[in-house]
Amino acid sequence: MEFGVHLPLLAFRGQAFSLSRLVDYAEAAQQLGFTTLCANDHLTFSRPWLDSLTALASLLTKTPHMTLMTTVALPVVRGPVPLAKSLAALDVLSVGHLIAGVGPGSSPQDYALAGIVFEERWKRFDESIQLLRSLLQREVSPFRGQFYAGETTRLEPFPVQESGVPIWIGSWGSEAGLRRVASLGDATRSNCCASVCLLGRLPSAPKNWPGSRRQGSKRFSCGRSRTRHVSWRGSTSKSFLSSHSRVSGAGSG
After folding, report:
1. N or C: which end of the chain has fewer CB within 10 A?
2. Residue 238 falls within a domain, yes or no?
3. Is residue 253 part of a domain?
4. Which domain does 145 fall in, by range?
């Protein structure tokens, strides 16, 4: 079992954003034995929200052995092609330590800012996953759908991971969501009421579902943190993470 932690990207009580705060948080997580740095995604929110991809990139040289993960990025809102370009760059610069968690998002405000009809999010999301895969993997044919059409020109540089950046799909565990994971994703990222992200090898969908891409897959669970205690070694690091736990668990979608 591996554990990940959300970066504090949401401002509470007038807190100022700073690179040093992110670095201190990530280094404390690494000292405690967490393996993954996770970042949620919104364009706008009820409080200021630091950009997730920029935050992950800022920590590349500080925690080079930790996995980076978007939990979740919004390919429909950001645009699947620009998102694929950014994800490929993160994979190259992290030397293959990237997992792309994606979801449709649940905020009409994000969609309004992007000029996209909110009610189209699920159809667009299904297509955006397929386009992302065609751009992030070397041996996948260009995708063409109702909303998106991939060109024959490939985005370069390619990700370092030979099989492409793993795509984990956000789901609350509904049958429709798990079918989407089975047919389009490499694993699922689900929410629960926990203070940390849990990386485990749990089956996410029945093996015999039609269109399933995997014989079972990992389940990734990230919490909307309400606890203020992390029971790992190191009193200084534990105190630091506890003081930030309220901002590390806010989710999208």
Report:
1. N
2. yes
3. no
4. 2-248
Tokens representing residue 186 in the block: 């490499």
Asked whether residue 17 is domain-assigned, the answer is yes
Q: d(Cα 64, Cα 92) in Å, to the nearest integer? A: 12
Q: What CATH number is associated with residue 193?
A: 3.20.20.30
Instruction: Give the pair of three-digit tokens for residue 46.
Output: 């009820």
pLDDT tens sequence for the chain (253 residues): 888 999 999 988 878 899 999 999 999 999 999 999 999 999 999 999 999 999 999 999 999 999 999 999 999 999 999 999 999 999 999 999 999 999 999 999 999 999 999 999 999 999 999 999 999 988 888 888 999 986 767 889 999 999 899 999 987 777 887 888 888 888 876 554 333 443 433 344 444 444 555 444 444 444 333 222 222 223 334 444 544 443 333 333 3
With 0-12 / 13-18 / 19 or more C-beta atoms within 10 angstroms meaning exposed / middle / buried, residue 241 is buried
Number of domains in the chain: 1
